[in-house]
Amino acid sequence: MANESRPCPCDIGDRFDYGGCGQEVQVEHIKAYVCKPPASTDKAVIVIHDIFGWQLPNTRYMADMLTTNGYIAICPDFFVGQEAWKPSNDWATFNDWLKTRNAGKIDKEVDVILKYLREQCGAKKIGVIGFCWGGAAVQHLMLKNPNLKTGVSLYGVIRFFEDRSNLLHPTFFIFAEKDEHIPLEQVTLLEQKLKQNCKVDYEVKIYPGQTHGFVHRKREDINPQDKPYIEEGRKDMINWLNKYL
Question: Given CB 3.0 to 4.6 Å as the disulfide criterion, which of 7, 59, 73, 88 pairs with 63?
C-alpha cells in the first residue's frame, strides 16, 4: 500500500499517452528502445531513464525528439531487468530499492551500448543525456568515461563530485529552481567546484519556478505557465548536443 500521507518525493508527473516511433531491441544482456532518423548519421545519443524505467512513455518521447533532430537515440534498460519504481510503491522502501540500482555502476552496460552504436548503427560521435536517476548517471559518466563526447544531466541528484570535479567532456546541467530533492545550495557548491577544477566547457542553468522532472514529466498543454520553460529546457538540451556532437 502506498503511503498516501506524505507526498511522493519523485512525482511521475503527466504520464504521456505516447506509443513511440522506435523499436525495442536486445543488445547482449540489455533490452533497449532505439529510434533512428530517416537520413543516415554518425551521431548518436544514449538516453538514461529515471527511476520509472526505460519503458516510461515520457522518456521515449524525449528519445524520439532527439531522432527528429537528426540523432540515433537509444534508451537502454539500465536496471537490467530489475523492476522500475512504480508510483504505487511505498516510498518507505525506496532506499532499499535504490541499493540495487546504483547510478554510478552502469559502466558495463554503457560499454555494451557504445559497442552496439558503433558496430550496428555506424555511430562515431556519441553523447548522453539523463533524467533524475539518469542525470546522476550522466554526471558519473562525464567524470569517468573517455568514449563519450558530451553529456546533458537533467535534474540529476548531485553526487560523485565529492572527490573530483574535473569533467572529461563538455557537460550541461539543467536544474529546477523549486526542486525538492536538489537544494540550490548544492547547485551553487557544484558550480564553485567546477569553476575551480574544470578544464572543459560546462554550463549550469537553473530554470525559474520549475520543479523536479519539468523537462520530460510535464506536458505543455496541461501546464501553460510552465510551457516556456519546458520548451526552453528541451531546446537548450538539443542546442548543447548540436554544439558538441
Answer: 73
Q: Which three cell numbers stand for residue 140?
A: 558519473
User: Cα angle at 158 between 154 and 162, to 5 degrees?
Assistant: 145
The DSSP bridge pattern shows strands 23-27 and 30-35 to be antiparallel
Phi, psi of 5 (to 5 degrees): -75, -25
Backbone phi, then psi, for 46, in 5-degree steps?
-85, 130
Instruction: Count H helices and E strands in the chain, helices first.
Output: 7, 8
Rg (CA), the chain: 17
On the question of pLDDT at 2 being above 50, the answer is no
pLDDT for 20 equals 84
CA angle 221, 227, 231 (to 5 degrees): 115
End-to-end CA distance of the chain: 45
In tens, the pLDDT along 33-70 reads 999 999 999 999 999 999 999 999 999 999 999 999 99
With beta carbons less than 8 A apart as the criterion, state whether 189 and 156 touch: no
**Phi, psi dihedral angles at 174 (to 5 degrees):** -105, 125
Q: Which residues pair with 173 in a beta bridge?
A: 153, 204
- Catalytic residues, by residue number, are 132, 179, 212
Provide the edge-to-edge strand list for the sheet that holds 72-76: 23-27, 30-35, 72-76, 43-48, 125-131, 150-154, 171-176, 202-207
Give the integer Cα–Cα distance in Å for 30 and 51: 17
The span from the CA of 73 to the CA of 35, in Å, is: 5
User: Which residues, including other chains, have CB under 8 Å from residue 115's CB and lie 6 or more apart?
Assistant: none
Q: Which of 105, 21, 12 is nearest to 51 (CA)?
A: 12
